[in-house]
Write a structure and sequence with these properties.
alpha+beta, 37% helix
Amino acid sequence: MYIGIDVGTSAVKAAAFDHAGRELAVEASPVGLALHEGRVEQDMYEVYRAVVGVLGRLTLRVPGPVELAGLTGQGDGVWLVDGQGMPVRPALSWMDGRAHELLDGWLADGTFETVFRRTGSAMFPGCPGPLLAWLDRHEPKSLDAAATALYCKDMVFGRLTGAPAGTDVSDASMPFLDPRTRRYDESVVELLGLGHRRGLLAPVGDPITTAEARGEGLPAGTRVSNGPYDLAACALGAGVTAPGDGLLIVGTCLAALVATTELDLSGEPAGLYISTDRPGHRLRAMPAMVGTAALDWVLSTTGVRHEEVDALLAGTPPGAHGVRVLPYFAPSGERAPFVEPRLRAELTGVSLESTKGDLIRATCEGIGYAARHCLTAAGLTGTLAVCGGGTRSPAWMQLLADVLGRPLRVTEGEVGARGAVMAAATRHGIPLDTTAWTRPTRIVAPDPDRAAYYSTGFEDHLGRLAVARDRSR
């Protein structure tokens, strides 16, 4: 039995797989987010307890030897630990917006663009560069008390195994890693005013680090691999490895990824290049700030239950009777395929005649347009896989296929956990049938007439977005 662990933003999950890639069982536990005036933090103790809890329940449900475990989790943010791997303060989430003024300054003085031209990373407020710089200015005692600034999965890996603090090339990709050398770019560290904090950056394991579990959650001696982080793990789990092929993750974060062997640091700075365990192979990533979180907010505001969404989408025509949504709901603005820290969501075309179905469909269409924008910017030319919580809605998947104008290889289940296991197996030299492990659940083809309608709608979306971006500055 293989186990994949996915430490997400709002939930921790662990999944068991057999040798053929069949998902045997899944255990999950919610974890909290503390939100206040643009600041988003997580309790590291709560997150780790959730990991141990789901692993304990999973191993009871699926008895038998655990051959290995792969670990993945949310990326970015800052997870400060001391020399014993224990939390110094609550983790700063990737959703945190407190460093937006710093980023505004870097956008204005050219620092932002310089970093992108060197590392391929378009910084956003919740990535480690701005957050560490903010802490250095406003909370230096936290950095003084810390030994390492980790990422989420790294904190869990250290606690599960007792291994020295470290990360992998995927998590290290934003914003300090040079994708050509796969080492930290020291000039970028200095440029962000963090030269005197250089010792906080986690050592990079290349390939991913392995260690043995100490007995919490997993049987003592279980082989555990640390990484890649969730975006890259999902790409592996969905079989997106050939250049040009893409993945759309419809989760809390709407993430578009395209496999590539190219490195293009020209054009508008946006997204990032995620290094993978295969040197020369990267993922061009456009991770937008809000995906299903936008729909969840609209559902909560309108009092609509999730199980009602499919019927409302089916009963409302394309275009939602003129209602339009720019789905940029995150308190830290947007980070892909452009960076606008002050951009906010907009609802237009709403009248007393608008229905809940109009609002729901317009939100789903807006998310679809944002996804198309991200995939276009990432360079999608091949097949497209889709995974994440949004795949549970057949009507939304059909809407997405229509808006994107291409077939969707829908992959359900715990795709990130699956990818973490596949990475761990490669690290330990265990052969897997990758075709079987990454076979899609179903394929959703677009309706030609609706695809043509949404192609025009996408151009309208881009025009409204340009106006909103100008207004947000």
